Amino acid sequence: LDHPNVYSGDEQSVKDRFSPNVIAEQYETLFNQLLQD
């Protein structure tokens, strides 16, 4: 990014939402749903 100061927000919420554990849990849920269909 040329101008990182332009982008701001709640850094902790982004970290929480996209943490490896959260993403893995979402993929696992999706995988299980696909197996049920």
What's the short story on this structure?
With 37 residues, this protein is mainly alpha-helical. It has two helices and no strands.
Rg result: 15 Å
Shape: elongated
Briefly note the structural class of the backbone: mainly alpha
> Assembly state here?
single chain
The DSSP helix count reads: 2
Q: How many beta-strand runs?
A: 0
Taken in chain order, the helices and strands follow as HH
Whole-Å distance between the termini? 42 Å
Query: Roughly how much helix do the residues carry, as a percent range?
Result: 55-70%
Our estimate of the beta-strand percent is under 5%
Q: Average pLDDT, to the nearest integer?
A: 92
Largest sheet: none
Low-pLDDT stretches = none
What does this structure look like?
With 37 residues, this protein is an all-alpha fold. Helices cover 65% and strands 0% of the residues. The chain is built from two helices and no strands. The mean pLDDT is 92.
